[in-house]
Automatic annotation (TrEMBL):
Superkingdom per UniProt: Bacteria
GO MF annotation, one: glycosyltransferase activity
InterPro entries to which the protein is assigned, alphabetical: Glycosyltransferase_grp1
Signal peptide: none
Designated name of the protein: Glycosyltransferase subfamily 4-like N-terminal domain-containing protein
Length: 280
């Protein structure tokens, strides 16, 4: 009999790093396991980092549905493992606390997987009461997963090292290119520097700094094309669009790209930028 796994966290839409990673993992696991999901993203839109973790009555009401669904599944569906990708704000994380507690009571292994390096900053900002609450919840899990060895340190004060696991980010196989294609791309000399930013256009992802750097490159008459693709965060939409207009022919905004269009966009680019500044 196939082992049963329950995945709890955000799934597309909207497309974010975490929701896409969850979909990739689900697509892989379901080939060999009985996997069910609870999609915790009830708003289905990109929220600004400023609004994440803040109290919002509508968000609280909407969040009850996946919480009740998740509790019901954990209590009555006999899962072998519970896998959770929680938020990294205090209030956002606490939304997942009942899943952790019930899993422990039911003696079901439960793992939490953080997609980012904001946990330590969140933990350090809390008062002693909230710190103890977070610490207790983390230690009630079977393990905490981070994206890289460099992020293990952020859990030093919270959980013992033997409970920390590293699972690095992956890439969808359809976007991989052959080694000879990569070598050809590196050999090829273009008149213009072709740059790609492939992520949601959010302040905490460094999009403003990137556009400002591109404006400096334009002023210095550097030949380049900056391709950007993703959803623009509402809070900075006007600022981003103004900077795009100033860049003129040096920039191309593709909106949301998927499938073959996404692959073509990646293949045409010489450099891919990652400008995340959230964990600083």
């Amino acid at each position: 009999m196939k082992k049963k796994i329950l995945m709890i966290g955000p799934f597309p839409e909207p497309i974010t790093g975490m929701s896409l990673a969850n979909k990739m993992l689900y697509d892989g696991l379901k080939k060999n396991y009985n996997v069910q999901i609870v999609d915790t993203d009830t708003e289905k839109k990109i929220n600004s980092a400023k609004s994440q973790g803040k109290f919002n009555l509508k968000k609280v009401i909407n969040s009850f549905k996946p919480i009740l669904l998740g509790i019901n599944k954990i209590l009555f569906s006999n899962f072998d493992v519970i896998y959770i990708t929680p938020a990294q704000s205090y209030l956002g994380f606490m939304k997942y606390s009942l899943f952790i507690k019930i899993s422990k009571r039911m003696k079901i292994p439960c793992y939490i997987h953080f997609h980012g390096g904001f946990v330590k900053k969140m933990y350090d900002s809390l008062n002693s009461k909230r710190k103890n609450r977070i610490k207790k919840l983390f230690n009630e899990t079977s393990g905490v997963i981070v994206l890289g060895e460099s992020l293990v340190y952020m859990l030093d004060e919270i959980v013992p090292k033997e409970k920390v696991y590293v699972c690095e980010n992956g890439i969808e196989s359809e976007f991989l290119i052959k080694e000879e294609e990569l070598e050809e791309k590196l050999r090829k000399k273009n008149e213009y520097i072709n740059i790609l930013y492939l992520s949601n256009l959010m302040k905490t992802k460094g999009i403003i700094e990137l556009l400002d750097a591109a404006l400096i490159m334009k002023q210095e008459n550097i030949k380049f094309i900056l391709n950007i693709a993703g959803v623009i965060e509402k809070e900075i939409e006007n600022e981003v669009k103004n900077k795009i207009n100033l860049l003129g022919e040096n920039i191309k905004y593709h909106g949301i790209v998927k499938g073959k269009e996404k692959k073509r966009t990646i293949e045409k680019s010489k450099y891919i930028l990652f400008t995340n500044i959230l964990s600083k």
